[in-house]
Every structure is written in C-alpha cells, then in structure tokens.
Amino acid sequence: MYVVIAANTLLMVGANLLGLTSSYLEDIQQKKAFLDTKQCLEMKLIIEEQSDEQERLLLSVLPEHVAVKMRQDLGSALDTQFKKIYMSRHENVSILYADIVGFTAISSTYSASELVKILNELFARFDRLAERYEQLRIKILGDCYYCISGAPRERPDHAYLSIHMGLSMVKAIKYVQQKTNSPVDMRVGIHTGAVLAGVLGQRQWQFDVYSKDVELANKMESSGLPGKVHISEKTLSFLNGEFEVEPAYGEKREESLRMAGLKTYFISKVNKPFKGDVIKNGTVHEEQPDDNLDDTAGVATPIDEKGAAMIRERENSDDFRQRLRKDLMSRTGWR
User: Fold this and answer.
1) pLDDT tens digit sequence for 28-38
2) In this structure, what are the phi and psi dihedrals at residue 53, rounded to the nearest 5 degrees?
3) pLDDT tens digits, one per residue of 123-135
4) Which residues on adjacent β-strands are paired with residue 269?
5) Taking the domains of the chain in order of start, what are their residue ranges?
6) Which fold has domain 85-302?
C-alpha cells in the first residue's frame, strides 16, 4: 500500500513538474513573440514617420502636384539613365511680384538676426494670404516675393484673386511699419499670360516659372509705386468690373513694357470684396484677422525655436507611444 502511495505521489510530482516546465517554456515563447511584435511595430512606425518627414521636406521645396509625381517616379523601378523632365505649360496665369520698398533703410538699424525674424514673420503672413487667395508661391528672393494664380489648376478668377492678394500684401506691410517705425512699403506688380512651370536640378530641386510674361510681371513691379497694386492691361482684360482702375503710365517708366505695347493701371477702388470681406469707408476689411498676429502689437511674437522644438518633440513622443500601445493591444487582444 505504501508503495502505491509513493508511486502515485511521484507520478503527481512528475506531472506537476512537467506542467510547470511546459508552462514556463510557453511563457518564454509568448514573451519572445510579444517582444518581436513590439519591435516590428516600432520599426514600422519609425519608417512611417520617416516617410512622412520626407514628404514634408519634399513639399517644402516643391508644389504638391509636382511632389506627388516625383515621389511616384522615385518609388518606381525606372531606368535612371534618362532623367524625366517635369515641365508643363499653362495659359492664362496671373503672375504677381511684390518687393519691399525701403528695406535698405531698416537694414542699418537692425541686426541680421532681427531682420531675418522680421522677414520670416512677414513672409509667413504672405504664405497664409496665398493660401487664402488660391495662390501658388513660387519663390522668395531676398525681400522679393512672387506667386501665381491659375496654375496648376485652371480657374477663371485668377486675376481677381491675384489683385486681392496684392492689396492684402500692401496692407500686411503696415505691421512691419509699426514694428520697425520706418517708412517701408510694398510695391506690387501683376501681369497675366502664359508660363512654363517646372523643376530644375537633379540634387537640389528648384521649382520655378519661365516665360516672357514672367519677365513682364517683374517689370510691372519695378515700374510701380509704393503702396499701389500695378496691373497690366492684359490682367485688366480678365476682370469684370470687380475693381476700379486709374492710368499708371508704367510703359513710360519701363522700356520693356513700352516695347511690349502694354498699358498699365493702378487699382483705385474695390467694387467686389473677397468672400467674407466687407467694405467700410472705402477700405476692405478681412472677415477674420490673420492667426498668430496681434493687431495691437502689429507683428506676431511666435514661440522661440527652442520652445517650439520641445513642444514638437513632446507631441511626437506622446503620439508615438499612443499609436504603439494601440497597435500592440489590438494585435495581442489586450484591453
């Protein structure tokens, strides 16, 4: 009888040990599988974030419609012996050139870093205005800003939008006047015609527009007057009474305009405000003030670079952890 009890005891102990060993090994395998899954998900999210960052960098130097095409071609297994040329011709495009008048005067009273900050705040506002008025910003050249409307998407109101853009830019320079206490102003020129738009370079890409009409738009700006929006008769032909104009005689001040046979005009009155805007006492007032700008102070006072970097890092880290936890829980069935 004692032999039977001892045998049963040994059998039970052996079975328990076998079960514990099996459970331990299974637990190790599950932990390993969990860690492998976690590592795979981390790598997946890192790759996704790197891909998003590459897309943001691409969009910072190229328009979206060009960046999408180039990214598709870069991702395909095409023979790189022949480089694809990204060029397209667009008709009926309004080209706007704007230059800061009197910028040299404030250059002697402010440091280089302060000037860069002022220009950055001003051009950031211009970019928001470009988005509002459906403009495609082409380039910033020193204190010169130029953009187009009517490309890549054709639209019949390109001249109307470009003029409102120019008027808003003249209004925006008032913030710099208040901040620097100097008589800076904007000189805006607009011409309408055909452009050839495309990307140049193989390593350092640059999107730009080229044509005789682009050169004429530049001359429209240089022959204009501070605080005025200077348009050509070609641009005027695309308007339908939205604005009142007065002769500007820019062709008498600029030989290129005279050689092209163009008459020029200044915008003197707005008859049709942009959607949401209102006219009070002959002045156009925007429906909503520009964000990140304090009307009482004049110019935005953004968060310093170090603070902004810390906020972005914290937000990105929190977002990464939340997505990782969500994916892990969905894959492992946790709640």
Assistant:
1) 888 888 888 88
2) -65, -40
3) 999 999 999 999 9
4) 244
5) 1-61, 85-302, 309-335
6) Alpha-Beta Plaits (3.30.70)
